[in-house]
C-alpha cells in the first residue's frame, strides 16, 4: 500500500471485537467474529455478498444488538452504553455510505455544513464556512461548493459523501464499498483519497470492499470474511499467498479475468 508518515499503534485497539454472534431467526449470520482495528490502521474487510459485513458494521455503531460477544469502540462497550452515550460515540465514528446519501436539494456546501449545524450548535457561520472549505480542499473538490448533487459525477458524489463524514472529525472511518460502480481511474482516485484522509485526519479505518485493488492500495491488513467469521487476517500478501480455495478464487476473480 501507499507509504505515508502514519504510525500504527499495535498496543491501542480503537475497535476490539470478541466472540460476536448474530442470528436472524434460524439464519446464523455472524458466528464468532474476533477483530482488532489498531490506532492509525486501515483494515479492509473482504467477503462475498451476504457474508455479514454490513451486519458487522451495524453492530459496531450500535444500530444492531449482537446475540453474544463484545464490541469495544474507543474504549467503550457499545452494548452497555445509554442512548446519549452511544450518540456521542457515534460522532467519533464516521460511516461513509455506499450511496453517498447526499441531500439532493442542498448544494455541496450545504450538505457538508449540515452535520455541523446539527451537532455543533455553538459554531458560528464563519467557523462552519471555514470548516467546509477546509474539508472540500482536503477531498480535492473546492470548486463544487455551490453545485447540486445531480450535477456531480459518481466519483465526485462519493468524495463529497466522504467529506460530509469527515466534517465532524471522526477518529474512526467506516467506508462501505467506496469504489463500487466506479471506473478504474476514478477508483484509483478514491483509493488515494482514503490513504490521504488517514494522513491528514489521523483516522483509523475499516474499508468494506469487494475490490482487491482497493484493498491492496489502502489497507495495512485485510480480513477475509466467510460464513460469519474471519477466515484469514493479515497483510495483503500474507492473505493472498495461499492456494486455499475460497481466497484463491477471490483473487483470481479480481485479477486474472
Ligand atoms: N435486519 C435483518 N433481518 C433479517 N436478516 C438480515 C437482516 N440484516 C441482514 N440480514 C441477513 O444477514 C445476511 C448478511 O447480510 P449483510 O448485509 O451483512 O451482508 P454483506 O456481507 O454486507 O453483503 P453485501 O456485500 O451484499 O452488502 C444476509 O443474508 C441478510 O439477508
What does this structure look like?
The protein is an alpha/beta fold. It has 9 helices and 10 strands. The protein folds into 2 domains: 1-92 and 171-257, 3-Layer(aba) Sandwich (Rossmann fold), CATH 3.40.50; 101-169, no CATH class. It has helices spanning 53-60, 83-90, 108-119, 125-138, 154-166, 184-201, 212-218, 236-240, 245-255, and strands at residues 9-24, 27-39, 42-47, 68-73, 76-77, 93-96, 172-176, 204-209, 221-226, 229-234. It has a 6-stranded mixed beta sheet with strand order 6-7-8-3-9-10, with helices on both faces. It has a 4-stranded antiparallel beta sheet with strand order 2-1-4-5, covered by helices on one side. Strand 4 (68-73) and strand 5 form a beta hairpin. Helix 3 crosses helix 4 (125-138) and helix 5 runs parallel beside helix 6 (184-201). The longest helix is centred in the C-terminal third of the chain and has 18 residues, at 184-201. The protein starts with 8 loop residues before the first strand and ends with a helix. The model has no long low-confidence stretch (mean pLDDT 91). The structure holds adenosine-5'-triphosphate. Adenosine-5'-triphosphate binds next to helix 1. Adenosine-5'-triphosphate binds at residues 24, 29, 47, 49-55. InterPro entries: AAA+_ATPase (IPR003593), ABC_transporter-like_ATP-bd (IPR003439), ABC_transporter-like_CS (IPR017871), P-loop_NTPase (IPR027417). One of its GO terms (molecular function) is ATP binding. This is Phospholipid/cholesterol/gamma-HCH transport system ATP-binding protein.
